[in-house]
């Protein structure tokens, strides 16, 4: 008689691996790497666009400097073409501002509010506003809009407000301060006390950045006494300002 525990002795052993995984679970382990790849893709594409834009920006800066030195129409066209190529690759706020500034400078060169300047100012305005929409806290773009406002013949109080915003958003840039002083001295009848207080520090920054040029600018705008308030004679910078300003005034006196 066969033993009960021998029954099925020849049967295959049962599997100990457990039940098979549900269908469709295999793809889930790829989900996280795929999501990370998708998150990394936009910055990688942006970097890929920035690189050629940066490479184009180097000759654009050189061509702009060449045009400013020569004033030649051919040099202007070459500089603008380089800036437009940079924008085509990657229209970031800084590239928009630099192209707008180039257009503004060209408008000044060809006559300010003359008919030939109007299309340049319109294009510069559009680029400045596009830059502002992406970098609203950048004092450079507010200064650019203030200069454009003056050239376009806007309400001077609006221009002053744009200038004020530029100072408040970026008060400590010396080169930008010099550009703001150039604009501010044309708008003296429209200053209020609050703006004048803000401008005192801009005068000091601009003088520290380019002493002789600052004094020349103040003399050309008949504003030497206006800016002198920022330079107390008992301070080192005040003594330096008085010396350079005095030499400049003497240098403009007619010979005896």
From TrEMBL:
Domain of life: Bacteria
Residue ranges with Low complexity bias: 7-17
Region spans: Disordered: 1-26
Protein name as annotated: Tetratricopeptide repeat protein
Species this chain originates from: Rhodocista pekingensis
